[in-house]
Amino acid sequence: MLSSQNVFAMADCLRSVLSDQKAEKIRPISEIDNAVDRTDSKITQMLENAIGKIETKEREVIINGNRYQEKSGGPLKLEHNNILAGSEVSGGKQPNYIIDLKHPAMRPILEYAKEIGKRDLPIWDKVDLIQQKVLISLKSKNPYINPDYQALLKRYFEEGIPISLGEYLKHHVGVCREHAALLHLALTEANIESRYLYVRTAVQSERGRDHAIVIFENNGELYIADAYFKEFHKQKLRDVWIGAPESDKFFPFDQVLPYPKIWKPEIKEPLPSIFNKDFTLLNKNNISVSEDYLFYKL
Question: Nearest 5°: phi and psi at 62?
């Protein structure tokens, strides 16, 4: 059995590395065998062809003897049990995310997406159906002032631990980060290759300045899928970039941001759980090892 002190010390270690303060061991990811995902390379190349050079960083981090592949910025592929940085690492209130595909609230949308993926439909029909499902599932209005959303953030932020993405679905709340992450994961389940991308709009809008979107390739062109800011949905990425002929129709993008960070852990052992089976938090003095909930040892 792991002590509560150990689990929360692990969470502290994660936060320190996410904020680039320290790690037990770091070496460039270029030294790691098979570190580069070929699809990522293709999408990154298409992205740079469309908008110019983008800033990304990749490395290996060893924490508590466990190895993580870390990537900062650029097109990100989210997978089960990855950890995605929230805004807390830069002074915000959004806790870091656990990408937990086994959370009960995740299953309906992923099963729906998988069924859509099997249909004999054009890719745009599939993307639209899945985008609408995400839109309906995170149906809150004005989430930044929604009391349920604020309470959810406050709870996990004060506990100092990551939040399962499924909790946003459970409470039907979310902003662009959660919409984009869920849409990307659902498209993946439908066998549609896509990536999570964080960009900056050239002007301040009513939805803020930083914005999370999903990009995917179709007929040699990168398109946007967006379940939060519908005006961007189905647009060619190059057409909403600053300087494009009709970009003034939108709040055009002017930068792919060098964040958030994502961690891909490599662990093959029973993992500590900090949640009950109904995904309420365990008492800090009652942390146990469980294979029912896969929370990677940090």
Answer: -110, 120
CA-CA distance, 265 to 80, in Å (whole number)?
Answer: 10
Q: Residues 154, 159, 163, 164: is their CA dihedral positive or negative?
A: negative
Q: 138: which 2 tokens?
A: 């995170």
Tokens 């930068």 belong to which residue?
255
Q: Model pTM?
A: 0.78
Return the residue matching tokens 């990811």.
Answer: 29
Q: Tell me, yes or no, whether 295 lies in a domain.
A: no
In 3D space, the residue among 191, 215, 193 whose CA is nearest the CA of residue 119 turns out to be 191
Closest by CA position to 100, among listed 79, 130, 72: 79
Q: By residue range, what is the domain housing residue 83? A: 4-290
What letter represents residue 265's amino acid?
A: P
In a domain, 298, yes or no: no
Q: What is the pLDDT of residues 180-209, one digit of tens each?
A: 999 999 999 999 999 999 999 877 655 557
In a domain, 254, yes or no: yes
Q: How many domains does the chain have?
A: 1
Does residue 296 lie within any of the structural domains?
A: no
